[in-house]
Specification:
Blueprint lengths: L11 E6 L11 H15 L3 E6 L11 H12 L3 E9 L2 E2 L1 H10 L9 E8 L9 H10 L3 E2 L4 E4 L12 H23 L4 H13 L3
Parallel strand pairs: 1-2, 1-3, 3-5, 5-6, 5-7
Antiparallel strand pairs: 3-4
Helix pairs in contact: 1-5
Length: 206
């Protein structure tokens, strides 16, 4: 008989859906992928804190209280998922600004994260490598795989239907995110210790 998890037991995953596209005739690839990812996490028993950038105030209203409230939400998450459209071979500027104000290099250390993206061309596959490097540096984040991207014809923009291979990749990524987050929460893994050992070796002089 499977154990029924209460709210305290559930892994909490924060998902940032960085698209602000409201066009019903041309759906956002990154949001559609984030929604599928969210649904899979929920089906596995996770508690998802969904942050939809369509609901956020305009950038001039992002004051210290705004950043504090969202920083607390990220601090309380066991894992982080960032989904962003690709513009000029990089993440959305609004997503970057949000992260600049909400990342915490103390309370968010060693947090596992996944990167999702939507792009018009598969040539943008490496567009989030800079963001991954920043997360690894700023919070010593543990990246899950190389992320998942929906690009070009991977999705029907009218219906939001995503290619099954991409969906399968997203589900596998989500499963691994939950596995790592659970291991870190219960202190049953060596991820954190391995990171610290690697960091010390990188700084060592031979």
């Amino acid at each position: 008989m499977s154990k029924v998890l209460n709210d305290k037991d559930k892994l909490r995953i924060a998902i940032l859906s960085g698209s602000t596209n409201n066009d019903p005739e041309e759906m956002s690839r990154s949001r559609a992928l984030a929604e599928k990812y969210r649904d899979h996490l929920v089906s596995k028993g996770a508690d998802v804190d969904w942050v939809d950038f369509r609901d956020l105030p305009d950038l001039p209203d992002w004051d210290s209280s705004f950043y504090d409230s969202y920083r607390d939400r990220l601090n309380n998450a066991d894992g982080l998922v960032i989904s962003t459209p690709i513009y000029n071979y990089g993440p959305s500027g609004k997503v970057l600004q949000f992260l600049h104000g909400t990342l915490d290099n103390e309370d968010q250390q060693y947090k596992p994260y996944s990167l999702l993206s939507g792009a018009g061309s598969p040539r943008s596959a490496l567009a989030l490598s800079g963001l991954a490097t920043s997360l690894n540096h700023e919070i010593k984040g543990i990246g899950i795989g190389g992320g998942v991207q929906v690009s070009g014809d991977d999705m029907d923009l009218k219906t939001g239907i995503i290619n099954n291979k991409i969906l399968s990749r997203a589900q596998q990524n989500a499963d691994k995110l939950l596995q790592v987050a659970a291991a870190l929460r219960t202190k049953e893994s060596m991820y954190k210790q391995a990171y610290l050992i690697g960091a010390r070796l990188a700084k060592a002089r031979f």
